[in-house]
């Protein structure tokens, strides 16, 4: 039986989590994490949203 679709409500707050399968390490080098932050920053400039950490 498939999982029910996720809610998609305009103006709602969503929790997004970045981690690998089985909690594997995502960023093996500092440069990998820095690249992720750079791409995130570019996305926030293009699509301004509230980012809560």
From TrEMBL:
PANTHER family for this protein: TRANSPOSASE IS200-LIKE DOMAIN-CONTAINING PROTEIN, TRANSPOSASE, Y1_TNP DOMAIN-CONTAINING
GO biological process, one term: DNA transposition
Signal sequence segment: none
Source organism (scientific name): Stieleria neptunia
InterPro entries membership: Transposase_17_sf
Listed name of the protein: Transposase
GO molecular function: DNA binding; transposase activity
């Amino acid at each position: 039986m498939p999982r029910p679709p996720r809610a998609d409500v305009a103006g709602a707050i969503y929790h997004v989590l970045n981690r690998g399968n089985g909690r594997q390490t995502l960023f093996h080098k500092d440069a990998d994490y820095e690249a992720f932050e750079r791409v995130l920053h570019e996305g926030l400039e293009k699509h301004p949203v509230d980012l809560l950490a």
